[in-house]
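Q: Give me the 3D complex with zinc ion.
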Amino acid sequence: MHASILAPSILAGDHANLAASAAIVEQLGVSWLHLDIMDGHFVPNLSFGPQTVAALRKNSKLFFDVHLMLDEPHRYIESFAKAGANLISIHIEPAYDHAATLARIHSLGCKNGIVLNPGTPASAIEPFLGQVDLVLVMTVQPGFGGQSFKREMLAKIAQIDTWRKDRKLDFRLEVDGGIDLATAAECRQVGTDTFVAGTSFFAAPDRAAFVATMARL
Ligand code: DX5
Ligand code: ZN
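A: Here is the predicted complex, encoded as structure tokens.
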């Protein structure tokens, strides 16, 4: 089982100074940063693009876990890879060549991930398990931070973890949305090893304690 990794989501950071928010993450000894890219089509919200990622890249050593919530992610792989993404995850729901896009992400030197929304069955991503570095199970409907954790996703996480074990695969299993210390512990119980936390991280009264507790999961 992989050691726990916390990936704070910069969507919950200070949008007037994202570099400062990223620096807070780095200064706490956290290694990953989750960057939510939204196009206003696949999700009803807009966030930021490759130019912002490139600007953050200049001053950050963090592992950039870039989550593309886009209708046409295949059109943007190069620009996010060039901007400095370390991992690019793409949703299974839009219609494009998922296998070719996942391979393209690798050919550009990035790790890849496949993402599924709460309403999407685990079977939708099963064919890709052998070619991904990460599976991201959305525990809220994507688009906004600060939503409530969907507990019914625990069974889906457990199913994907079982496939991982049975097929001796090594991808990371990540959750995203409504993750705090309590819901992270529930997700860890069913095989999660990578935790996106936006609101709970940036709103934590003692962020160092939050980080230390997450690391012990
Ligand atoms: C939602 C995003 C999440 C969000 C984190 O569409 O994908 O990463 O920023 O949500 P909270 O604030 O619930 O941790
Ligand atoms: Zn996300």
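A quick observation: The chain has a mean pLDDT of 98.
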